[in-house]
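Query protein
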Amino acid sequence: MTLIRRAAPDDVQGIAETHVLGWRHGYVGLLPQPVLDGLRPEQRVPRWALAVADADWPRRGALVADDGDGIAGFAHLRPTGDEDAVPATTGEVASFYVRPDTWRRGVGSLLMAAALACFREAGFTTATLWVQEGNERAMAFYARCGFAPDGAAKPDVVGGLEIRELRYRQALT
């Protein structure tokens, strides 16, 4: 049984581990392998400690999927930071990762449903997220969850490689 709940300070290490595992498996072939091999959970702990401490529910915070064996996934939620969107009405899924050994077992779907419920509770009318171009697995998952590309794209650099991110959006009705 997987429980979706608000992240607590004790979850930070598990979130960081899930984040690194998600990158190591999800970005194979999309990012340089030495970058993926060099990722360490301890590098991510400060970021997630701050995100958990900065929660302002239901508008901002991290949700975790707890499967009894630890953190099976997490979603970091916040008002949008996009210049062409309104933070009062648009929630952004800033990070969304599921432990690879739980892929295709419903954990991600449960987690995304809870994230969208938080956005609705916060009064957001739109949800967005950014996904790396070429990340077909993630794009297909987001489409199954009701998201679609809205035409916005932005460049980024990861491990010295220039990538392009695509924005996905869905109306929250």
